[in-house]
Design brief:
Layout: H1 2-18, H2 28-38, E1 46-50, H3 56-64, E2 69-73, H4 77-86, E3 93-96, E4 99-101, E5 105-111, E6 135-143, H5 144-151, E7 157-162, H6 168-173, E8 182-189, H7 192-196, H8 200-209, E9 212-218, E10 221-224, E11 238-244
Parallel strand pairs: 1-2, 1-7, 2-3, 4-6, 7-8
Antiparallel strand pairs: 5-6, 8-11, 9-10, 9-11
Amino acid sequence: MNILNKLLVLIERIAAKLQGKGWGSGTVQKEFKSVVKLLENNSPKLCIDIGGNKGIYTEQVVNSFSDCKIVIFEPAESNVKTLKKKFNNFPSIKIEQSAVSSVVGDATLYSNEDGSGLASLTKRRLDHLGIDFDNMENIQTIRFEDYWKANLNSQNIDICKIDIEGHELDALLGFGEAINQISVIQFEFGGCNIDTRTFFQDFWYFFQDNGFDIYRVSPIGLIKVKKYNERDEIFTTTNYIAKKIL
């Protein structure tokens, strides 16, 4: 019975990953290619990278579309230093040291270490993985709509990538009118959403209400999520792309 159970668990995991569920680690190239496909090969002019970390996603944009203007939002000071050094010779890239949220103000960035890709505005409980979140950094949060109006002249955005460890929905709720001027939004969903108590259902209704289709990035290509199902509540790293319905 134990062998049978292990086999069933293995089959379950393989089937889930083929659907893109839990297939979100180390897939940046695949994610970006999927975004470009949904743009229907139109060259992006403006990209917003929310949660830039060390610039891996921005590198994909630069390597494919050197003329694209990019704004990176990254709150961690050590990562901002890395980004400035990496993109020092790219005048089309602007780096903003702040976190994007639904409110403006002071906040604490929690992590296991400086520059961590796990850093979040929530102190995550990862004792089961042997990871503590005792590292703290004081940061500033902004609403994207405010920045968009004041610094981007409310212009159209081709690509918006959001990877901020469980606070993607908070960021989206601060987009305001800007949500109507974005072609494609890529966002991550996974274990961090357990800590922030947000669900795929929240994203589903947000994008449905704002006129977007949702796709899941998978090893066999993009899979359109045609309707919400509780089976989509998979808390292992999964990447989604929302495309504005024209």
